[in-house]
Amino acid sequence: MLLQVALDKPEHFGILPALRGVADIIEVGTPVLKRFGVAAITTVRELCPDVPVLADTKTVDGGAFEANMVFSAGASFMTVLSCASQATFEAVGAVATTFGANVIIDTITESGKPVLLRPDICLPESFAYVAVHSPTDARLAGDTSTSHIEAVAAMHARGFRVSLAGGIGPATLDAVIAVKPEILVVGSAITESDNPGKVASWIKERLPEPELGWPWDRK
């Protein structure tokens, strides 16, 4: 299980030295991308050159253009919303293949639905993970649902690797580990803590070793 740490505020860049050797992936969050553009990606790459970077672009159109921007800047992953068109999937997928990068399809716009991802969806090979994502605003408004954690099993049954995000921290870690997502995304539980490096290490030490390759055949 890989630990992805999400940076959503400019001040979060200050904790990057503490994440080296702990985080498996560093996420340049959407707010930071909007604030600084692709310079946020290059900055993370300079400070943590040995850690892959995910650009949380939440792309929904202009796929090839956005993919070229973030992968050229050094990102290893980017996100595309599940509500995007097949043409956008194909455009992003082609660019990702050229760069040897990967794409995560984010189901945040479908959060709470009984079934995530339409059954007939066709994803390029470079779309390596499905993000099962509980929206921040919904949680801040009082939504305490754990449906995103419960949805991991259904994604695995369909042959997808899963990136799980939303309200994850020490209090929910046991429940999350039990459903075995391939990537565990943690944001404020680390970045807003008094000792981010210590919290990140505490979480990382409890995660099982990641499995290599595709643990399930794609369907």
From TrEMBL:
Orotidine 5'-phosphate decarboxylase domain residues: 2-203
Lineage top rank: taxon: Bacteria
Keyword Coiled coil among UniProt keywords: no
InterPro entries: Aldolase_TIM, OMPdeCOase_dom, RibuloseP-bd_barrel
Keyword Lyase: yes
Enzyme class: lyase
Keywords: Lyase
SMART domains: OMPdecase
EC number of the protein: 4.1.1.23
Matching Pfam families: OMPdecase (PF00215)
Record-level Gene Ontology MF annotations: orotidine-5'-phosphate decarboxylase activity
Name recorded for this polypeptide: Orotidine 5'-phosphate decarboxylase
Organism: Shinella lacus
